[in-house]
Each structure stands twice: as C-alpha cells, then as structure tokens.
Amino acid sequence: MKSRSTALKKKAEKPKLVLDSNVFISAVVFGGKPREILDLAIKGLIGIAVSDDILDEIKGVLKGKKFQFPMKIVYALIREIEDIADFVEPEERIEAVLDDPFGSLRRITL
Predict the structure, then answer these.
(1) Is the pLDDT score of 27 beyond 50?
(2) Predicted confidence (pLDDT) at residue 91 exceeds the cutoff of 90
(3) DSSP one-letter string for 35-100
C-alpha cells in the first residue's frame, strides 16, 4: 500500500515534453492539436522544455518568407514560450529523423 505522501507526489508529477519547433509554430499559426498541447502547458498541466536551437528555429520560421510575422510579435511569442517552458541545454545533438531524399516526407498507404 502506498503512503499518502507517495500518492500525493505521484499525483503532483506532470508529464514533461520537449516540443519540436513545428509544434509551436503550428499551435500559433494553425491551432488544432498543437494548440491544445500548448494550452495544456499554459495551464500548467504538462511541463515543456525548450533549447536555444528550438527557439532560434521558431524565430527564423515565423520571421521568414512563408509567414513574415513582425519582429515585435515573434519576440513576444518567444518570451511567452520562455515563461512557460524550462530551458535545457542538450549535451549532444541526435539526428533521429533521416534527411528525406525526395524533399518532403511521403506517406505510403497500403
């Protein structure tokens, strides 16, 4: 049988996620499930972690040709992400997704 303090600790633990820059960008631009994930973090129901690389990629994409967000808006969004996220400094870079030789990932339906 678990003690009350152990049960309370388990209940207090919340999932911690590292979100790819695409999740943040989709949450801001398109909404949907990525926005729901971000809302959970804003409400404190999940923890999220970001690194300088993730924040730099978000800045670059939002300021870039495709979205052309004003600098003022981009930096406000970055500050908001920094307010709700834990900052992490990865010790090593892992390339988990292989480069796509076709220029875009393709879904194969059987």
Answers:
(1) yes
(2) no
(3) HHHHHHHHTTSSEEEE-HHHHHHHHHHHHSTTT---HHHHHHHHHHHHHHEEE---SS----S---
